[in-house]
Amino acid sequence: MDAKTSAVAAGTLAVVGAAVGYVIARRKAKYESKALKLNSRNNKDNPVAEYIQSHLQPLHPAQEKLIKITDSVPRRRMLSDSLEMQLIHNVLMSMGAKKTIDVGVYTGFSALTVALAIPDDGKVVACDITMDYPKYGVPVWKEAGVDHKIDLRIAPAVESLQKMLDGGEEGTYDFMFIDADKSNYDNYYELGLKLLRPGGLMALDNMLWGGQVMDQSVNDKDTIALRAMNDKIAKDDRVNATHRVPHFGDMMSAKMKYTRRV
Ligand SMILES: C[S@@+](CC[C@H](N)C(=O)[O-])C[C@H]1O[C@@H](n2cnc3c(N)ncnc32)[C@H](O)[C@@H]1O
């Protein structure tokens, strides 16, 4: 739920809700106004992102198509960053990843990217709580010839991940991308660490949250959850080789599950 919606949903608390919403909205704007200038989601107005993108291999036509389709889908800002996706694509190819998990599908860009990187008998367990957004991606997955690799599960992701563990899949996954509701990141992280094999990779999106995690005066529930995750992961000796990959104005954080001390 975004700040605006929570203010509306507060009902009898509308005044308090509205005030909170306003404060949050203003704080977001403060960080985002700086960040947007360098945000690769806005490549057209962004010379740095354009430069980087023009020095990478082009996106797959299906990725381009899905980005275009998503332009007219509600909550378009939820779309994953294409430079991040290219990095994930290359890392997965280099790892030879086969079994993967995508938590938070939206219109299916991350699931598509992962599916394009894994072999024909690989799989992406793609978890979302609603079909409202994945329905836009499903035809594109088909057109790209990767739909057979994507196993879409519509349910709260915590339930889907727990079912995978109950089904005996502990320690069998190569990669997990976490990009859903922030207050469940810790649950996704813990379940994911169980599902990943030693040496498996977990990538958590939005770990800077537009810079808000660094500002102790910002205390909405998403910021608190992400700040707590950063603090927890920094001290967690179950993961190593922590890469923090800056993307402009936000950050993707990739963890490799602990294999051995070096
Ligand atoms: C930021 S979007 C994901 C973006 C996507 N990874 C992409 O590549 O564009 C977050 C998604 O998480 C989903 N979501 C929110 N809460 C969830 C939950 N409890 N379980 C599963 N999915 C959830 C939303 O429906 C939304 O589609």
Distance between the termini: 42 Å
**Shape from CA axes?**
globular
Uncertain parts: 1-42
**Domain module count:** 1
CATH topology: Rossmann fold
Total strand segments: 7
Family: Belongs to the class I-like SAM-binding methyltransferase superfamily. Cation-dependent O-methyltransferase family.
InterPro entries: Cation-dep_OMT, SAM-dependent_MTases_sf, SAM_O-MeTrfase
GO biological process, one term: methylation
Keywords: Methyltransferase, S-adenosyl-L-methionine, Transferase
In short:
By secondary structure, the chain is α/β, with parallel strands linked by helices. The protein has helices at 3-9, 14-36, 47-54, 61-70, 82-95, 109-117, 134-143, 157-166, 185-195, 221-234; strands spanning 99-103, 123-128, 150-154, 173-178, 196-204, 239-247, 250-257. It contains ten helices and seven strands.
Give a verbal description of the structure.
With 262 residues, this protein is α/β, with parallel strands linked by helices. The chain has a single domain (58-257), classed as Rossmann fold (3-Layer(aba) Sandwich). The protein has helices spanning 3-9, 14-36, 47-54, 61-70, 82-95, 109-117, 134-143, 157-166, 185-195, 221-234, and strands at residues 99-103, 123-128, 150-154, 173-178, 196-204, 239-247, 250-257. A 7-stranded mixed beta sheet has the order 3-2-1-4-5-7-6, with helices on both faces. β1, α6 (109-117) and β2 (123-128) form a beta-alpha-beta unit. α1 packs antiparallel against α2 (14-36) and α8 (157-166) runs parallel beside α9. The radius of gyration is 18 Å and the shape is globular. The relative contact order is 0.12. Mean pLDDT is 80; it is low at 1-42. It binds S-adenosylmethionine. S-adenosylmethionine binds next to α6 and β2.
